[in-house]
Design a protein that fits this description.
The structure is a single chain. By secondary structure, the protein is an alpha+beta fold. It folds into 2 domains: about 150 residues, Jelly Rolls; about 90 residues, Winged helix-like DNA-binding domain superfamily/Winged helix DNA-binding domain (Arc Repressor Mutant, subunit A, Orthogonal Bundle), CATH 1.10.10.10. It is about 40% helix and about 15% strand. It is built from 10 helices and 11 strands. The strands form 3 sheets. A 4-stranded antiparallel β-sheet has the order 1-8-3-6. It has a 4-stranded antiparallel β-sheet with strand order 2-7-4-5. The chain has a 3-stranded antiparallel β-sheet with strand order 9-11-10. The longest helix has 27 residues. The chain is globular and about 55 Å long.
């Protein structure tokens, strides 16, 4: 089980980062209710909900890690995604539809539980929140597509490198920049195998290869990035010097620059890796009477 002191250190680091980069959905919800005072603490190994349950609650993840997984009749488990702070869980395709997956806490987790009907009413009267939730759902869908591509088209070495890099970016909000950077993860080799369709033995051997190639070292819930450019290359992510600087804020190893375009910092990363950025609602645009008349005429036609 994930060490308590390591979790506490992670929570402190995440809380400090969230103070600087508060998730837009969480920021919007905090204008409506006090998420902190009403938070629930869930122990590692507990379930927010299980596959097949009818869930009448939405969960806003404040701290900790949650594995979203599907269990087959033969007992095999597929981890679909790892929910991190800022995620909103509990959405269903239809009212009273059973959950198609389970949500199990991999570490001690703090969540705010919203009764479904209460949040539905808030969403109906808060267009800004509705837009942000749509963006998160789109990001989740993009990440699911990326996971499917990773499982279907990459070998074991590339799959593992891709997943480890994804987790790093989602936690740190940037690509790794310096050799020796370390993050603590409440994951085992078994979790990695369940997320990537690999056996425990295959994961163990592949991690040993990555360690011998001096790319990453993963042991005892501790991931060390030994060679950031090599990890990025193994993960199948293409980047150039300018991209690397925009993602990390630091200079990259000297290599040929292929593009000088001024890109969005998340443009070369798979969808769903970088969290939503804070922005402001669009300013209303005044429409001239002639434009309004043309629109009404087109609508009537």
């Amino acid at each position: 089980m994930y060490e308590t002191r390591e979790l506490e250190a992670e929570v402190r680091a995440r809380s400090a980062m969230d103070g600087r980069h508060k998730m837009p959905i969480r920021k919007e919800l905090e204008t409506i209710t006090d998420l902190e005072s009403g938070a629930r603490v869930m122990p590692a190994g507990s379930d927010l909900y299980r596959q097949g349950d009818t869930c009448s609650t939405y969960f806003i993840v404040l701290n900790g890690w949650i594995a979203l997984s599907v269990l087959l009749d033969d007992g095999s488990c597929q981890i679909l995604d790892f929910a991190l702070p800022g995620a909103v869980l509990g959405f269903q395709s239809g009212l009273d539809a059973p959950m198609y997956h389970s949500a199990r806490c991999l570490s001690v987790v703090r969540v705010y539980a919203f009764p479904r009907r209460k949040l539905d009413i808030i969403i109906e009267t808060n267009p800004r929140l509705a837009v942000l939730l749509c963006r998160q759902i789109a990001a989740n869908e993009g990440r699911a597509h990326d996971h499917l591509t990773n499982l279907g088209l990459r070998g074991a070495r590339e799959r593992i490198a891709h997943l480890l890099l994804e987790i790093y970016v989602r936690l740190r909000r940037r690509l790794p920049a310096e050799p020796g950077e370390i993050i603590q993860l409440p994951l085992s080799q078994g979790h990695i195998g369940q997320a990537l369709g690999l056996t425990y033995v295959h994961v163990c051997r592949t991690l040993q290869i990555l360690r011998e190639q001096k790319i990453v070292r993963f042991a005892n819930h501790r991931l060390e990035i030994i060679d950031p450019p090599a990890l990025i290359a193994a993960a199948g992510i293409e980047y150039d010097v300018l991209d690397h600087q925009s993602h990390t804020g630091r200079s990259a190893p000297v290599r040929e620059v292929h593009s000088l375009s001024d890109q969005d910092p998340a443009s070369s990363l798979p969808a769903g890796w970088m969290p939503m950025q804070r922005d402001h609602p669009p300013r209303p645009v005044l429409v001239s009477s002639s434009a309004g008349s043309a629109f009404n005429a087109a609508r009537a036609a």
